[in-house]
Amino acid sequence: MANQKSPKPVLRKKFNQSRLIWIFIILGLFYLFSSISFTVSGIPREVAYSDFYDTLKNRPENIKSLVKIDNELQGEFTDNTKFKVNIPDNDQDLLRVIRENVKHFKIQPPRTFLAALLFNLGPILLLIIFWWVMASRGEQLGNRIMAFGKVRPKMHIEGESEKVTFNDVAGVDEAKEELQEIIEFLKDPKKFQRLGGKIPKGVLLVGPPGCGKTLVARAVAGEASVPFFSISGSDFVEMFVGVGASRVRDLFGQGRRAAKTSGKGAIIFIDEIDAVGRLRFSGIGGGHDEREQTLNQLLVEMDGFDTQQGLILIAATNRPDTLDPALLRPGRFDRTIIFNLPDIKGREEILKVHTRKIKLSPQIDLKSVARQTPGFSGADLANLCNEAALLGARNNKEAVETIDFDKSVERVMMGPEKKSHIMSKKEKEITALHESGHALLSLFIPEVNPVKKVSIIPRGLAGGYTFAPPLEDRHYWSKRELISEIALMLGGRASEEINLSEVTTGAQNDLEMATHMARRMVTQFGMSDKLGNVTLGRREGLVFLGRDILEEKNYSEETARLIDEEVKKIVDESYNKAKTLLEQNRDKLKILSNTLLEKEVLDGEEVKKLLGIEKKDADT
User: What's 103's DSSP letter?
Assistant: First the structure.
C-alpha cells in the first residue's frame, strides 16, 4: 500500500516547481517590458529637462496641459503626444514659468509607498492570480476527467438508510416466494453449496410499470441485510466511446468489494435494463456502437461472476421482448420472475400497507375500495391513498372516510371535477340525457356492471361520466358479454337520438371504444360468423419503438372488406339493442335525466331507488 501512495507527493512537488518557474518568467517579462521606452500614442514619452524648459520658455503654445506629481511632470502636447519630465526638488523658477505660460496646470499629491507598489505591481499580480485560478480549475477538471468513467450508484447499507422488508411489499406473493431462495442463500450459502448447488447469478423482474419491481428488489436486500447498489440502465449510456463499458466494470468492482467487506454478499439492481440491454444491431437505423460495447462488457462481467462471493444481479424491465438473447441465457439471468397487476386480494393487501400511516375511519372497508380499482398497479394504489388523505385534510376531517376514497378513485381514473366550468342549459340537458342512457342500460343489461355513480359535472376530459366498476376481477369474456359492453358504450348516442331526434359530438369517445372493441372481436378473438376462428393482422411492434407504428396486413383486400362489414354489423346490432331497451323504458330515461339536471350527481343506490329497480346481484 505504501508503494502505491508514494508517487503522489512527487507529482505534487513537480507541480509546485513548475508554478514557481512560471512566476519568475512572468516577473522577468514584466520588468523587461517596463524598461523599454514606448513611443506609441497614448503612452508617456520621457523628455529631457532642458528640451522641456526650452519649449516652455519659447514655444509654450505647444504644451496643452501639465500635471505635477511629486518630482515628475506629466503632460500632453497639442499634437496629443503624452510626455513626462523629471524635475528637481523645489524648483520655484520652473513653477513660476509654468503658471505664467501653461493654462491647464494641476498639482496632485504624491503617491504613498503602498499606492506606488500597487500601481507598479498591480498588473503582474492580476496575471499571477488569473494563472493560479486557471491552474486550479485545470487540476479539478483533470480529476473529473479521470472520474468520468466511474459510476455513482445509490447505495443502501443497513443502518444508514430506511430498511425495506417483505412486510412493506404486498400483492406479489408469488414473486416473494421466488426471491425467498435468494435471501436464504445470502444468509446461509453453505446450505446450498454442500450439495453442489449454485445460486442463480441473475434474476430478471418483468412486469408493467408500478407493480413493485424496484420495491421488491430493495426488500430482498433488506431481508438479507447486505449492501444494495441501485442504478438505472440509462446511467451507463454516454456519447463518449468507452464510458459505458468503464462504468459497468466500476459498478461490478464496487459490488465485489462490498460483498467481500460485508462477508454476506451484495446485490446490484439495474432498473430499466432495456436501456442498455437491447438486441444488438436491430431496429431502425441499425445498431448503436457505444451501447453495444456497454452491453458486451455487461455480458463479460456477468460471465465472470463468482458465486462464492455472493454477488447477485437483479434487473427490472417492462420490455423483455427487446432484450438481447445473450443476456437472457442461463448462466447470466437464470431466473425470470413475472409481475402482474394485483387481483382484488392483492389490492386489498397493498391498500393495507399504504394506509399504515394514514388515520382511517373505523367504517372504511378496504375490500370495497379494492373492488372499485381493477387494473390499478401498486403505484396507482399508493397514489390513491395519498389523494384520499389529502382530500380528508383539505376538508378538516379528523380521519379519512369512505367518501374520500370514493372521490379519490374517480379523481385518479378520470381527473378532478371542474365545478367552475360553465355549461349552457342546452348542453347540460344533452349531457344529462347522454349519461342517463349509459346509467339506465347498466341496470337493464345483465352482462354489464351496475352503475355506482352518474354525474353531469365535467371531470378531466369528460363532460360527464357514468362510473360502473366491475364487481369482481375478470379474465375471460364471452361474445355475448362483449356485445353487451358495446351496447352500453353506445347508450349515450342512442339516448340522444331518441330524445333529441339528432346526434351530437358527445359520443365521440364512446364510438371510438366501441369500434375498437368490435374490430378486436373480429380480428383477434375469432368472434365473426363469416370469418370464423382466425386471427387477422400481425400486431408485433418494431423493436425499440415501444409501441406499434403499423400493423402487418397478412390478409387480402376481400378479407379486409369482410372485416369492415363484420365490425359494422357488430356495432349496429349493439346499437339497436341499446336503442330498443331505452325506447322501452323512455319514461324512466326522462325521470333520470330530469333528476340529474336538478341534482347533477347521483349514486347507484339513488338511481335504483328513483327508478324502482331492484339491486343487481354480483352473480347476474
Answer: S
Q: Catalytic: which of 290, 292, 348, 435?
A: 435
Element (H, E) at 551: none
Task: Tell whether the model's pLDDT for residue 457 goes beyond 80.
Answer: yes
**C-alpha to C-alpha distance for 422 and 101, rounded to whole angstroms:** 90
Three-state SS at 227: coil
Rounded CA gap, 353 and 348, in Å? 9
Q: Are 239 and 290 in contact (CB under 8 A)?
A: yes
* Contact yes or no for 82/127 (Cβ under 8 A): no
Of all residues in the chain, what percent carry a pLDDT higher than 70?
Answer: 78
Q: Is 435 a catalytic residue?
A: yes
* Residues facing residue 108 across a β-bridge: 69
Dihedral over alpha carbons 523, 525, 529, 533 (to 10 degrees): 90
Residue 571 has pLDDT above 90, yes or no: yes
3-class state of residue 386 by DSSP: helix
Residue 602: phi and psi, rounded to 5, are -135, 140
Cell of 433: 340525457
Using a 10 angstrom Cβ sphere, with 0-12 exposed, 13-18 middle and 19 or more buried, the burial of residue 360 is buried
Helix, strand, coil content of the chain in percent (nearest 5): 55, 10, 35
Q: What is the pLDDT of residues 243-289, one digit of tens each?
A: 778 888 888 888 888 888 877 778 888 888 888 888 876 554 445 57
- Give residue-wise pLDDT tens across range 576-585: 999 999 999 9
The residue written with cell numbers 358527445 in the block is: 506
